[in-house]
Design brief:
Helix content is about 40%, strand content about 20%. The protein contains 18 helices and 16 strands. Bound molecules: zinc ion.
Amino acid sequence: MAPEIEIYDTTLRDGTQGEGVTFSVADKLRIAERLDAFGMHYIEGGWPGSNPRDIDFFEQAKHRTFHRARLAAFGSTRRKDTRVEDDDQVRLLLNAETPVVTIFGKTWLLHVREVLQTTPEENLAMIAETVRFLKEHGKFVVYDAEHAFDGCKDDRGYAVATWQAAERAGADVVTLCDTNGGSLPDEILEMTRHARANLQGRIGIHTHDDIGMGVANAIAALEGGASHVQGTLNGYGERTGNCNLTSVMPIVSFKLKKSSVPEESLGQLKELSQFVDETANLRPNPRLPWVGAAAFSHKGGTHVNAVQKVIRSYEHIDPALVGNKRHVLISDLAGRSNIVMKARELGFDITNQTPELRAMLDRIKVLEHQGYEFESADGSLALLIRKALTPSPPPFVVDAYHVSVRRDGDASVCEAIVKVRVGEESEHRVAEGDGPVNALDAALRAALVRYYKPLRQVKLTDYKVRILDSTSGTAARTRVLIESSDGTSEWGTVGVHENIVEASLQALVDSLEYALTKEVMKT
Ligand SMILES: [Zn+2]
């Protein structure tokens, strides 16, 4: 059954206009495959007329099968005063051999006269002839009306004439683009209604987020009669970005309750969003609506208390619907309820009445006062809770260590010596690294893998240092946060000390200890 609202993804074309976003051809193919598996309706792969990389992408895409999505090549109408058959850029669109071709054309007379430097009549001919040519070659044609709203504000009659020219020539979708991103939702609503009254077929919407209205404007257009939304994952795009599809898709499905991408796919939305960030080598934005790590985080004590009693009291939707999770943030604002919920999230079976709770809370408060923070150090927090609930000897103890740094020619070399005790046995290792923490990590691990094989999988993925204030008159303290991964999950650990190496060692020890007890704690 045809979806009520079609989703058109342009992460691979408009998204790559964004600062810091670059994809290799291989990256683009992997993303396209993920988008297809997700159930995206259209994937715009690139603009073959603008760069060789995109030509290469479409060349390689010919050997792939897309099961759910239709691949689109993007380009423009023919050049002025040229026969469409003779236009190289249009020829490249056919060479891409995609089922869908999307072309953009001018709505705004300012652009027609001053940028294209042609007549209003020639612009209409450029639109109609290009659409007709592509239709004759069997393409499904999406016509992107550039500056549709600015053009409409300027000369309503001419704007409508350009859209109708595309539709009469056979365009399957006429997409209204807020190219400069400066329109307001009520303007978008009114002008989309006007387009709806003057067009027969499907109307699309393509918005940008220049004034923070990208998603709101797309939703307004749906209200006005559009039923095809163009945008990018995570809102990638030029300037402040495109309309964010990671917000649009759940809004369409869960708030507007219209059929669109498969609802079960939305359960993997967070994963998809992260995959794209990782491929672009960008750090996921925790404040992204729906899929950000903070989207369902609770901090204030009363919120947490209420969430514990009635989940929906402080949450607009079940986070699992978009593959996200509820997080409880620990801070000294927090009380008993926060710890209980956090402990449950980490897999401990405790209630507000658990007797060890008081001591646990006091310990956290003391540590937070010293500069520890547990909001991103769930590994350290889990160890702390576990030690309070079921005291047992640690899996290993660092008896001694020594770190040295020396200059050898141009290279600086760090060496660490670590003495570790496991039960009755003692192990002594030396390792080199490109920094003191790296060397310490290598020596510690070398000493421990003999006893604990799973530590081979553990990798240090991030390392952050913050100097805490020294206003108390004592030496400044250093807080080290380490992120680790074993390939299946990630955890953070924390260390605080006047000495950065000591603080790092604490965080490293917690990380490895957590890796060893993680499995035990889950059961
Ligand atoms: Zn755009």
